Amino acid sequence: MTNKGFTLWFTGLSGAGKTTLAKRVEKEILMRGMGVELLDGDVIRTNLSKGLGFSKEDRDTNIRRIGFVCNLLERNGAVAIAAAISPYADVRREIRALHKNFVEVFTKCSLDKLTERDTKGLYKKALAGEIKGFTGVNDPYEEPENAEIVLDTEAESIEDSTNRILTYLEERGLVPAPVGGDVSAEERKAIEAKLKDLNFV
Amino acid sequence: MTNKGFTLWFTGLSGAGKTTLAKRVEKEILMRGMGVELLDGDVIRTNLSKGLGFSKEDRDTNIRRIGFVCNLLERNGAVAIAAAISPYADVRREIRALHKNFVEVFTKCSLDKLTERDTKGLYKKALAGEIKGFTGVNDPYEEPENAEIVLDTEAESIEDSTNRILTYLEERGLVPAPVGGDVSAEERKAIEAKLKDLNFV
Question: Which residues of A touch B35 (CB under 8 A)?
Answer without folding.
Answer: 75-77
